[in-house]
Amino acid sequence: MESVPRFQSSFAGFARRSACCTVRHCNQKTSSTKNFFKPSVTLETFLFYSLGAVSVGSALMMVTRRSPVMSALYLVLNFFALGGLYLSLHAQFIAFIQILVYAGAIMVLFVFVIMLLNLGDEKKLTEKFSWKKIVGAGLSFGVLMELIFVFAYSTASLPPSQFEKATQIGTVENIGMQLFTTFLFPFEVTSVLLLAAIVGAVVLAKKKLN
Questions:
Q1: pLDDT tens per residue, range 53-96
Q2: Which of 42, 135, 159, 198 sits a CA distance of 20 to 30 A from 65?
Q3: What is the pTM for the complete model shown?
């Protein structure tokens, strides 16, 4: 009769172990199902690669178009794509400056130059095959091979990523603080150089008017 309780206790232990194994298997299956249906590419990553492809494609279209107007339009698209890339990297200040300064002010200057030079006739822009193109193609190929060699065989380690702090680093407040504290001297030197360039342009324009 003593074997009956012993058999019941062993059967109860076996039932508990079987239940634990069943629950563990169900949990593993559920977690694997969740990982299977979980998207591996986030929206931020998709936007980053999409904007990168748009920026590279618009740059290639800009340098291969014969019409200056179409080149200017592709350049505007490139500026907006770069602004979107900066924004996806949480560099808010650089993104807005990219759009306001480059896509706004500098593109207006490009459009004025196109209007003043009257580059509507595409026959004037055609160039014949010359040694300059050969030299340019050779230099471009050399730079491309150098970049491939650097990225493929370089042993230098990259600095640690600051992506977690990007929302704080990319703000106007933080950039202004860095400019007027850590980088105050180069910031002032750049201001003096720009002021000298403005004064020189005014003097040259005045001489031509006289």
A1: 999 999 999 888 878 888 888 998 999 999 999 888 888 888 88
A2: 135
A3: 0.59
